[in-house]
Design goal:
Strand content: 5-15%
Largest sheet: 3 strands, mixed
Order of helices and strands: HHHHHEEHE
Structural class: alpha+beta
Oligomer: single chain
Number of helices: 6
Number of strands: 3
Helix content: 25-40%
Distance between the termini: 167 Å
Number of domains: 2
Strand order of the largest sheet: 1-2-3
Shape: elongated
Length: 208
């Protein structure tokens, strides 16, 4: 078997390139891992996001956020145009975002409209967060629905401790000692007398 597939008149640099390329097959590459957001190497995550058409990408995200955005892309593209897809896209925001549809407002708003509320928390909020929410919403919502409001809301959270105690018991009443059954002896007498009664009716005499 020949050591080289190049023609005899090849240059030395062509032989060197052939040697390098021949070694590429020795590098283990598991294709399934590259297409899996959980096993893909961190350096290749931007390319995987590009291949899966991730709508929102920030190089400043943590590795966990980048993997979560890629993982959510499957669901978002499968359910685009639904509320579930919008909520999945908003998971890329590093704070809770609540959607309120028109029929959930009091009084109800115009049909097929909705608004979004971004939780401010203790970190504050800036315009970049609102811009990101708008981009994510418009990338996943349907054409008919329209976002008519976007605001930040403050939420105060705290721990509440509750205790519960249950008492159970029986009430027992002790009465003084009472004797047995008291019996009274008495004599009774009976008498029988027959009564006979005749009823006589007298009518007046009628003249002829």
């Amino acid at each position: 078997m020949a050591q080289s597939l190049l023609p005899p008149n090849s240059t030395q640099i062509e032989y060197d390139v052939e040697q390098v390329i021949a070694r590429l097959s020795d590098i283990p590459v598991v294709i399934g891992d590259l297409w899996n957001p959980d096993t893909c190497p961190a350096a290749a995550l931007p390319w995987l996001a590009w291949a899966l058409s991730v709508d929102e990408w920030d190089a400043g995200w943590t590795e966990a956020q980048r993997r979560a955005a890629i993982r959510a892309s499957y669901f978002i593209h499968k359910h685009k145009g639904t509320r579930a897809a919008v909520e999945a896209a908003l998971a890329a925001v590093d704070r809770p975002v609540k959607l309120i549809e028109w029929w959930q407002d009091a009084p109800p708003g115009p049909p097929y409209t909705f608004r979004a509320e971004v939780e401010v928390g203790d970190r504050g909020i800036d315009q970049a967060v609102f811009d990101q929410v708008e981009r994510l919403v418009h990338s996943a919502k349907n054409i008919r629905s329209e976002m008519v409001g976007l605001r930040g809301v403050g939420v105060v959270r705290g721990d509440r401790h509750s205790a519960l105690a249950m008492l159970s018991g029986d009430v027992v009443t002790v009465f003084p000692y009472a004797g047995g059954v008291v019996e009274a002896a008495a004599s009774s007498r009976s008498a029988l007398a027959p009564v006979l009664l005749d009823r006589v009716t007298v009518y007046p005499l009628l003249e002829a």
